[in-house]
Design brief:
This protein is α+β, with helices and mostly antiparallel strands. The chain contains 63 helices and 18 strands. The longest helix has 44 residues.
């Protein structure tokens, strides 16, 4: 039934007015049928939640038909009647749209139907809706356009109201709104909306004040008392007066003496005098009787409420005098105390008659209101208090004396209770004991052992946590689609949840608020055991369950705080996020997302109501505490956790899906229009959340934000904002930086054909971003001021965004005056690198952090010299490994700078000190060479040289000591940290650091210096060996001996053995030749070893030459020892030196002629560049190795939570020691260059494509002819079997029947498959072609409605047919338009365009649309189509399937030409 009625309502789209702007009979009948369907809907939806949900799904349809005079406004009222859940879900965009309709289309009460339906359920107000509606209706400049007759009775506009009411005066009838003059009905409906917006006692004080300001209470009363007012006007005026003026939280000063109000109260005597008779008539005749006026009785009842409210809130008998006096204020009454008492007694008497009647027509609530009015009047009149008046049936009033006595007794009890509470609250001892109880309980919990702890215990930590969680969860119940908890359980639950959070905070050593600003990985690691236990024991899921509509707000707030505490972890708490996502997907999480939406709407309403808040000096912004939920949502998506990012947009397993992204944008829109510090601080939190839900990237959120919301407009507004009111520039810069990051996040990972780029470029003011990218954009008063680090970061982010947009649309370079040369962009704190990400190379501009300034040149030189250059891969891996040590070095240097020690203790100074020490050693030895001699038989120097060298030697020792201290302060801590990072114990790290080679070297160096000072000068000569440490070439000489030490050691050992053998034989056989040098074997060995090497001819040179037996030994010693073995040793040393030199030359060649990052040869860049020194530009700008190091430092300096998708990718690669992000063998500079060979290749490919296109066209013509011939052949074969006498259907489909073989052949040779249903024998020459519908496109309804089909005939004549409507299955219906096709046309082309070019309405109004986007084209063979256009049918349909990249099914309609 519901679907049928909705289809009937859909027929309204076919209703059109004629040339006289009138509806024809068919249209009137359609309208009446739709009106009857809406009447059915009204009763179908009324107070039926399930049916109301169905209606809510079609709310937009009913709102769009408000102008069609089919009573859709009644249906809207029925959808929301009594349904608080649906009231809270209404999108805020409808509020704006309806108010805009009032302004543009005119004042119709139908436009106000939604407002009146969603502001309250009885006395329970929907605060967020009330605030939003009042703000939309009464915003500055808007209320004058939507108001009607909100003027004094003597105003010229009020005379128009009298004229509208004049014909209705004296008619005894209860007029419905639709029966009143439109403008009068609108006036009454607006009164009703504003009146209902003030209903309730929760958070409506500001709303009441706003409503009171638009219509003065004196004017309201005068309008009620006006003789020209009809009853229905008086009724709704009185309700407005009661809700907006009488029943308010803040009383209106002076109302108790208002002359007009007392005149109104006096008029109620006449109204109430007839009330009893009116009720008795209603009791006897019933409400349906035309003689009974329900409006009259309602007016009587609202009058009683006004009486009761006035005498409760305003009346003060002491302000009235016993005698009449003349007041200076003409607006004040001159009534005496007795006259006032008379009015009260009359009112009491008349209301008592109504009360005593005890009419069954009145509800219990109304009767209680009447009784309360009597009670109030009795207390207000001295005469009534003196009398004993008995009230019938439900009289609960005790005797006067007893009541007064009871009141006095109750007052005393209340006063004592209040005094007791105040004493407790002010007693610090009591408060401390209460706090100690909490601390003691938490302390006991924290002392419990975990399950994994190897101790004996009856109770474990996790088991108790599970019990507590279960206790809370079992008391949560769902009632009327809300969660409920017993108030006693609520208090306990709040306490337990707070205890959970406190345990986390105790482990972190700070509160969750402090952790947000000051904490980090250290605190996360400390809290990890408690967080893991709470997470696995159900506390995480419990947080989500407690954040739901219906749960106590303070308990929800504690759950939010606990959720934030659980989610704190650098880079994202993956385990907690997984639990949250699993819980939200498996369980029915509608209430969680509903409450999140309500909370965001509440925050938005708070800002909208307070508008611009200007804080005093020293005052900090104080937004509602609920704003913490933004941080919780952000942490849920931290680390670009895609499942939680997606679930913010849609919850596919829930009955109702809440798109929180729309709420984020709506909130941001409000904040962007309120320039103040409070809004800025809230905007920073909100934009950080928006940034987190799109980075990674999350493509679904990117597209929705860019294409379906006004996020781009809001961000553009923020970027254009100036620092005004109490705003702080640093906070504004932070907000602008985040907004620029969001723009980058929206296009992150988007392809070149993405509509996101077009959407941004059509909205964003690029000149503003260009201005922010320059130094002069934030200087404020002093234009020459040095920009702060925050400003430099913002400038860099703007440069990055501009480059990204220019890469997408190169014409922007010229339009904005931006240099295409990267060299002109990089500098002033900005650097660029190229990164492989998502299988493509990307340029990344970034701000060089200040910490990079601490990187010493000596450290850079050391890296360049010592990095492993064995191959390109090892080089980059070693570069990553060394970057850790360099980062520790700069961090330590930063620490020294913060301690004001860096001027002395730095690597630069340490390097200078070593050179000074070396120079002094050279000078000392220079003096020694020039002056040392044996003047007295001993080595001596002259006195003056001795004095000079003594001072130099002492200075050199001091410098050596200073060098050692510099090393110990500057380098030793870094070495120590490096050992700790390699997972060794602290003791081992200390030992390894103390025995480090360079540490020992500087200690030995100082020792030698001291020996030179205090022992002998010859020790100073050893200091010259320091050159080996300082110079790589000399170090290579030493390495030539050290490197092959094993081989040299074995060679030396072999030589020793051989020499020993010769010494043995010399000792035995030839001792006499060299006695006494060979008297012992030891002496003989020494002789052989010494003279054998020193003499050129070996040991033979030390003997007398002989040709006897010793000849063989002398010759073999010379050949074996001196020629063979000694040269082998020399050869090993020389070969090693040669290889070291070759390796060094290779390193130099690699350093100078090959890019460190990509490994591409220098010549390739020089040859491919149009400018000289292309290679130098490449390694300086594109692939500067130090820029990569700086980017790594930037990642380590930056909070993991601030990473975008690319940064997170690089960070994880570095952590895994992978080099996949380096552009190995790739460079953007090379990819941008098109060689002549490539140009020739492209020309050839273009020619081939053109030839292919021509061949395909001719083949299409040929296949059409073949298909037509086959079809005619089959028709002729089947002619005998056809039955032309059977009447053909008028709107059925025509069938082309093929046998299987033929059908397969046709399908194989055609671009589109034809499915034609029924047969026809008539062939017409000229035909008319139209479009029925289209299905299969996966687009939004808005995009489908923007589709346009273009039928092209002979490449010249075109027909355009636009989409008219879309049903719930996304089947697109088109306009009823026919195109006449002549007989000479054999083919037509049907092209489908997206007329909106994938843009939202907001974009359409903000920028030009550009050309429509072509989705697909289909070539239609008319020879087959003509077979279907039989003359005996009204029309036939032909369905065709597109085989393009955007497949869909389109149904054409064809008929003979008329």
């Amino acid at each position: 039934c519901f679907e049928i009625c909705m289809k009937v309502i859909g027929l309204l789209e076919t209703v059109e007015v004629d040339e006289n702007d009138q509806l024809d009979e068919k249209a009137l009948n359609t309208q009446e049928i739709c009106r009857l369907c809406n009447g059915l809907f009204y009763w179908f939806f009324m107070k039926n939640p399930k049916n109301q949900e169905l209606g809510y799904g079609e709310l937009e349809m009913f709102l769009n038909t408000l102008d069609d005079d089919v009573n859709s406004h009644h249906v809207v009222d029925a959808i929301f009647c009594g349904n608080e859940v649906l009231m809270r879900q209404v999108p805020r965009k409808y509020f704006v749209e309806l108010v805009d309709k009032i302004v543009k289309n005119g004042k119709s009460h139908r436009y106000l139907s939604l407002f009146a339906a969603i502001v309250n359920v009885g006395n329970k107000n929907i605060v967020e809706n009330q605030v939003e509606i009042v703000m939309n209706l009464t915003s500055p400049g808007r209320f004058q356009k939507v108001a009607s007759f909100f003027v004094p009775v003597h105003h010229v506009d009020y005379s128009e109201k009298r004229e509208l009411m004049q014909p209705l005066l004296g008619i005894e009838k209860d007029f419905k709104m639709d029966e009143l003059p439109p403008l009068l009905a609108y006036h009454i409906s607006l009164l009703k909306v504003l009146s209902r917006c003030t209903v309730g006692r929760i958070n409506v004080t500001a709303v009441e004040a706003k409503v009171q300001s638009v219509f003065a209470y004196n004017d309201i009363v005068d309008s009620i008392l006006d003789d020209g007012s009809i009853l229905v006007t008086k009724l709704y005026m009185s309700e407005f007066f009661y809700n907006a003026v009488i029943d308010v939280e803040l009383s209106i000063p002076g109302l108790e003496l208002s002359k007009s109000v007392w005149k109104l109260l006096d008029s109620y005597r006449e109204v109430l005098a007839n009330a009893k008779n009116d009720l008795m008539e209603a009791d006897s005749l019933g409400w349906a009787s035309p003689l009974v006026s329900s409006h009259k009785i309602q007016y009587m009842l609202v009058s009683i409420r006004i009486v009761q409210g006035f005498f409760t809130s305003y009346f003060d008998p002491t302000v009235f005098k016993d005698t009449q006096t003349t007041s200076k204020n003409k607006e004040q009454t001159n009534l005496t105390r007795s006259q006032v008492d008379e009015i009260i007694q009359d009112l009491f008497r008349f209301i008592s008659s109504v009360h005593n009647l005890n009419s069954p027509r009145l509800s219990t609530e109304v009767k209680e209101n009447i009784l309360n009015a009597l009670e109030t009047l009795k207390k207000s009149s001295g005469k009534l208090r003196a009398e004993a008046i008995k009230l019938v049936d439900f009289d609960i009033t005790p005797p006067i004396g007893a009541q007064e006595k009871k009141d006095d007794h109750e007052d005393k009890i209340i006063k004592k209770l209040q005094s007791f509470i105040e004493e407790i609250e002010s007693d610090k001892t009591v408060l401390q004991k209460a706090e100690n109880e909490n601390v003691a309980f938490i302390s006991l919990l924290e002392k419990l052992p975990f399950v994994a702890d190897p101790v004996d215990a009856d109770v474990r930590y996790e088991a108790l946590i599970r019990k507590l969680v279960f206790h809370i969860r079992e008391n949560i119940k769902i009632v009327d689609n809300q969660k409920r908890m017993d108030p006693r359980v609520t208090t306990t639950s709040r306490w337990i949840v707070r205890a959970f959070r406190t345990m986390i905070e105790n482990r972190m050593g700070m509160s969750i608020y402090e952790r947000d600003d000051e904490g980090g990985e250290k605190q996360d690691l400390a809290a990890a055991p408690v967080v893991n236990a709470l997470n696995t024991c159900g506390a995480t899921a419990l947080c989500l369950d407690l954040i739901a509509d219906g749960i106590d707000e303070s308990l929800q707030m504690e759950a939010i705080k606990l959720g934030v505490g659980l989610l704190f972890k650098e880079g994202g708490a993956l385990e907690v996020q997984n639990i949250m996502n699993t819980h939200l997907r498996k369980s029915n999480s509608e209430l969680f997302f509903k409450q999140v939406r309500l909370t965001i709407q509440k925050l938005q309403a708070w800002h909208n109501w307070h508008q611009i808040i200007e804080l005093k000096d020293g005052e900090e912004p104080n937004p509602p505490e609920e704003i913490l939920i933004l941080r919780m949502l952000q942490l849920m998506c931290e680390g670009h956790y895609l499942p939680n990012q997606d679930i913010m947009r849609e919850q596919p397993l829930n009955t109702i899906s809440y798109n929180l992204l729309d709420d984020f944008v709506s909130y941001l829109n409000s904040l962007s229009r309120l320039p103040c510090r409070t809004s800025t601080c809230a905007g920073i939190r909100l934009t950080a959340l928006i940034l987190e839900v799109i980075q990674g990237p999350c493509e679904g959120n990117q597209v929705h934000f860019a294409m379906n919301t006004e996020l781009v407009e809001a961000l553009n507004r923020l970027n254009r904002a100036k620092v005004t009111h109490d705003c702080v520039e640093d906070e504004e810069i932070e907000l602008k930086k985040t907004s620029i990051d969001i723009f980058q996040g929206l296009v992150e990972g988007q392809g070149e054909k993405s509509g996101v780029y077009d959407r941004i470029l059509s909205i964003v003011h690029l000149d503003i971003i260009l201005l922010m990218s320059k130094n002069a954009s934030f200087t404020g008063v002093n234009e020459n001021a040095e920009p702060t680090e925050e400003q430099l970061i913002l400038q860099t982010e703007c440069v990055v965004l501009l480059q990204t947009l220019c890469n997408f649309r190169p014409s922007l370079y010229d339009e904005l005056g931006i240099s295409r040369r990267v060299e002109d962009i990089v500098g002033s704190g900005t650097a660029m690198i190229e990164i492989i990400w998502r299988n493509d190379i990307h340029r990344r501009f970034f701000y060089v952090p200040r910490i990079c300034d601490y990187l010493a040149k000596s450290s850079k030189d050391s890296l360049v010299e010592n990095v492993d250059r064995s191959n390109a891969e090892n080089k980059l891996i070693d570069f990553l490994n060394r970057s850790h040590d360099l980062y520790r070095e700069v961090k330590h240097q930063q620490l020294l700078t913060e301690m004001n020690l860096s001027r002395v203790f730095s690597l630069t100074n340490q390097n200078r000190a070593t050179w000074i020490s070396f120079v002094l050693a050279v000078v000392l030895n220079g003096f020694f060479i020039s002056d040392y001699s044996y003047r007295t038989g001993e080595p001596t120097i002259s006195d003056w040289v001795n004095n000079v060298t003594t001072y130099i030697n002492a200075t050199q020792t001091v410098v050596a000591l200073f060098t050692l201290i510099l090393w110990l302060v500057v380098r030793t801590p870094v070495i120590y940290q490096s050992y700790l990072a390699s997972n060794v114990s602290r003791l081992e790290a200390v030992l390894y650091t103390a025995t480090d080679g360079m540490t020992l070297y500087y200690v030995i160096y100082l020792g030698i210096s001291l020996l030179g000072v205090f022992v002998e000068n010859y020790y100073v000569s050893l200091l010259l060996l320091d050159i080996v440490v300082k110079d790589a070439t000399t170090r290579a000489v030493l390495n030539a001996v050290i490197t092959p030490w094993k081989a040299l050691a074995m060679g030396a050992l072999l030589q020793a053995f051989v020499i020993y053998i010769y010494a043995f034989y010399s000792f035995y056989f030839f001792r006499s030749d060299i006695a006494p040098l060979c008297d012992t074997l030891t002496l003989c060995l020494k002789f052989t070893l010494s003279y054998g090497f020193q003499n050129g001819g070996g040991i033979a040179d030390s003997y007398e030459h002989s040709t006897g037996n010793r000849l063989i030994m002398d010759l073999t010693f010379f050949c074996v020892v001196l020629v063979i073995l000694l040269n082998v040793v020399f050869g090993m040393i020389i070969d090693t030196f040669s290889s070291l030199r070759a390796e060094r030359e290779r390193k130099i060649l690699d350093t100078n002629n090959r890019c460190f990052i990509c490994g591409i040869d220098k010549q390739i860049f020089d040859r491919s560049s149009d400018e000289p020194d292309g290679y130098k530009s490449h390694i300086k700008i594109d692939h500067n190795m130090w820029n990569y190091l700086y980017f790594i430092f930037l990642l380590w300096e930056q909070d993991k939570d601030d990473d975008d998708g690319m940064e997170q990718y690089v960070r994880r690669a570095i952590a895994a020691n992978e080099i996949v992000f380096f552009p190995a063998n790739k460079a953007v500079r090379l990819e941008q260059i098109v060689s002549p060979t490539e140009l020739v290749r492209r020309d050839l490919m273009g020619s081939v494509d053109m030839m292919e296109s021509n061949l395909n066209s001719k083949f299409d013509e040929f296949q059409g002819e073949i298909s037509s011939m086959l079809y005619q052949l089959m028709q002729s074969l089947k002619q005998d079997t056809l039955q032309p006498s059977a009447p053909p259907p008028t709107a059925t489909e025509i069938i082309l029947e093929f046998n299987d073989d033929v059908a397969d052949d046709i399908t194989a040779i055609t671009d589109s498959s034809y499915m034609i249903a029924a047969t026809s024998t008539h062939i017409n020459t000229n035909i008319e072609l139209g479009i029925v519908d289209m299905k299969g496109l996966t687009m939004s309804v808005t995009e489908l409605l923007s589709l346009k089909c273009k039928i092209v005939v002979n490449s010249m004549t075109t027909f355009d047919i636009n989409a008219s409507k879309v049903d719930k299955n996304k089947v697109v219906a088109f306009e009823d338009t026919w195109c006449t096709l002549p007989s000479d046309v054999s083919n037509v082309e049907v092209s489908v365009f997206n007329n909106s070019a994938m843009r939202s309405k907001a974009v359409q109004s903000a920028s030009s649309m550009g050309e429509a986007k072509l989705l697909s084209s289909i070539v239609v063979n008319l020879d087959q189509i003509r077979q279907a256009a039989g003359t005996d049918t009204e029309y036939a349909t032909v369905s065709m399937k597109s085989d393009s990249s955007t497949p869909f099914l389109i149904t054409l309609k064809v008929r003979p030409a008329k």
